[in-house]
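Progress against Task 2.4 (sequence-to-structure conversion) is shown through the following example record, which the project officer requested during the mid-term review.
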Amino acid sequence: MPVGLIVLSAAPVIAGAARVAELTSGATVTQDNARFFASPVPVLVHIFSVTLYCLLGAFQFARGLRRRRPAWHRTTGRLLVPCGLAAALSGLWMTLFYPRPPSDGELLTGFRLVFGSAMVGCIVLGFAAIRRRDIARHRAWMARGYAIGLGAGTQVLTHLPWILLAGQPRGLGRALLMLAGWLINLAVTEWALRKGPTKPTPSLGLTEPRVGALAS
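Structure tokens generated for the chain above:
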């Protein structure tokens, strides 16, 4: 499962690495990248936090690793919570304060604000649940937050057929393709959270839903 999630993360992670290289190598400023050169800190925070959140977070869905190395799971979780919050909050900042690209409309701006805020909410609720020792709700909320964070990977797949058939989407079409990526991830996550059978976790004495089918 971690391998599948990492593969789904590959396209946005590679695109983020290319953006970092562009910003640090003195590349030519164009209409598409001028906003990043004018204020590079938010996009750099976003890229580094999202990369760590998606790649390291994939291993949180390895049930065997959680059972064998519970301390590793907890330590990694303490790192992933601030990474996830930084990723979501920097995304919200860029949505609100960066000039809007020509291909994006007000509807997509609204979607980004909704899902960015939802990601923050899921991570906060997941953290609050584990502080109460509510394992089931902790896993559910963290899985939802990860699903939103991994939306960029699925959005590559929703955009690809449109690009091949009609070129780069703009306006309403682009907004709906972006929305589809987030909704697909959340729908698969909800299906996985509700799908049985559950399996007992010997180390905790609790049942564990089979989460993490995001890569399907």
